[in-house]
Fold:
Amino acid sequence: MRWYDYKVKYPEEECQLDQDEEWITLVSEGRTEKIRLQDYETLYSIPGLYEEVIYEQLQCNSPQVVCSMLKEEIEKTKEQAAGLRVLDFGAGNGIVGECLDKMIGCDTIVGVDIVEEALEATSRDRPGLYDDYYVMDLSKLDDHKEKQLAKWDFNALVTVAALGYDHIPTRAFLNAYNLLDNGAWVAFNIRDRFLSEEDDSGYKEILHTMMGDSLTMLQDRCYCHRLSLSGEPLDYYAIVGRKNKNATVS
Ligand SMILES: C[S@@+](CC[C@H](N)C(=O)[O-])C[C@H]1O[C@@H](n2cnc3c(N)ncnc32)[C@H](O)[C@@H]1O
Structure:
């Protein structure tokens, strides 16, 4: 049975859940299903659900924040945004691709995500948006995947809401980064906690090492990525910079 006519029920506001524990209940014709907000396979397979919960109810504005910062930095140079060949890593159902297309207007946008349902939802809801879209795990970059991606000659990497937690691991982020030309634009966001002293995801270390060496940071901003289910702001850092050279973090 498919969920087209459904209602979303949210947990009580006093229900304090960590970001990777959050869930909603979907109700349709007497049937209910509890869905974790990080269960992307299920969220993407129900048309409009991800947009309704993450973007409308929880007021996520990260695609706009990250894309507008990238646009601002490009406009400070004599370069043309229209020449951008972007790898949208952790592309999900295409909301970031749509934002890049509307706000910046790139030459090429290629999506990569690890779940098949992301590709299916993008083709269903935003057909023709991406020049290509790959379902692949970049933490293991073999020759075949490298060839498939290298042919796009990327000069920009955009990654929104996909670093940290059980999402894109540091190795995969570095592999994507190292596919870029030197001088490429890099725009991403990450929850503040992954840059704190207590973090053990590895992001604090690799970003610290990269920023002093392989990545020149141009702009950073701490902002509310979205609300939690209990209405608290979830603060993220958005960072825009340019690649100097490959990152060789161990
Ligand atoms: C919160 S969603 C963000 C989607 C989109 N960037 C947006 O902002 O709407 C995180 C996405 O990262 C993807 N993801 C998680 N781990 C990944 C990995 N190792 N490689 C590629 N994508 C991954 C998930 O499948 C999911 O689509």
Summary: The chain has two domains: 7-57, 62-243. The beta strands are 7-9, 23-28, 31-36, 85-89, 108-113, 132-135, 156-159, 185-191, 215-227, 233-243. The longest helix spans residues 62-75.
